C-alpha cells in the first residue's frame, strides 16, 4: 500500500489534491492538506502528487 505524506510547510492549501481524491486528501481549516486515507481505489496517487503545484505530496 502506498505511503502518502503532505509536507505541511510547503502546501499552499490550493485544494487540488482534495478535488482529485477526497478519499485521501482533505484541506484542513488551517489551509493545509492532510492525508486522511492511505490509498485510493479510483486515482493514481503518484499522478496527483505530480499535479501539486508546490510538490508537497510524496508517495512512497
Ligand atoms: S495540491 Fe499540493 S498545495 Fe494544493 S492543497 Fe494539495 S498538497 Fe497542498
- Tell me, rounded to a whole number, the average pLDDT: 95
User: How many helices in DSSP terms?
Assistant: 2
Sheet with most strands: strand arrangement: 1-4
CATH architectural category: 2-Layer Sandwich
Distance between the termini: 9 Å
CATH domain class: Alpha Beta
The fold-level CATH name is Alpha-Beta Plaits
* Helical content band: 10-25%
Note poorly predicted spans.
none
Q: How does this model look, in words?
A:
Strand 2 (25-27) and strand 3 form a beta hairpin. The chain has 60 residues and is α+β, with helices and mostly antiparallel strands. The protein has one domain (4-59): Alpha-Beta Plaits. It has helices at residues 16-20, 45-51; strands at 4-6, 25-27, 33-35, 57-59. The longest helix is centred in the C-terminal third of the chain and has 7 residues, at 45-51. The chain binds iron/sulfur cluster (SF4). Iron/sulfur cluster is lined by residues 6, 11-17, 25, 27, 33, 52-54, 56-57.
Please outline the helices and strands.
Layout: E1 4-6, H1 16-20, E2 25-27, E3 33-35, H2 45-51, E4 57-59
Iron/sulfur cluster is lined by residues 6, 11-17, 25, 27, 33, 52-54, 56-57.
Tell me briefly what this model is.
The protein is α+β, with helices and mostly antiparallel strands and 60 residues long. The chain has helices spanning 16-20, 45-51; strands spanning 4-6, 25-27, 33-35, 57-59.
Properties at a glance:
single chain, 60 residues, Alpha-Beta Plaits, two-stranded antiparallel ribbon, two-stranded antiparallel sheet, 2 helices, 4 strands, binds iron/sulfur cluster
